[in-house]
Amino acid sequence: MKRRALFALILITVALPISARAYLGVSQGLVSTSVEAGYMTRSFEENLSLSLPLVYGNFSLPMGSANILYRIQRLNPLVIGVGPAARIAWHADGGYILAGGAALSLSWEALRGSEVLFAEFSYLPFSTEQGAALDPLAAREIGQWVRIGWRHLF
To answer: Percentage of residues in the chain with pLDDT exceeding 90?
Structure first.
């Protein structure tokens, strides 16, 4: 069963770009501002984002995040996405925090067909910290549970 799930996840991440629409976007969370890139089909969405804690004026603690979401379009133009999420925040001294969990995304996709407004909620119960001690701001950045943003589809 585990091999089938792993195979399905690999197949999704490799085969999706063939029929997908790429996008770029920006979002704001409780702690950080993100720039993201990704692609979506009718059924799946995958995105990568890079965040900086600009709310606190700190540029030294970047955070990367990745989501793979299954999209439910039964309430068009409202689209619901659910799936696994991962985040990593690091510092130049070699320390990092890695977290994993799940994400829920609510998207409004009615603006001229190429603009998407979204709100993303995440729950990341699994985390580990390695290397040099990080600023407590990194833990808040990893733990931010909501972000709101805009995406432009190409």
So the answer is: 50
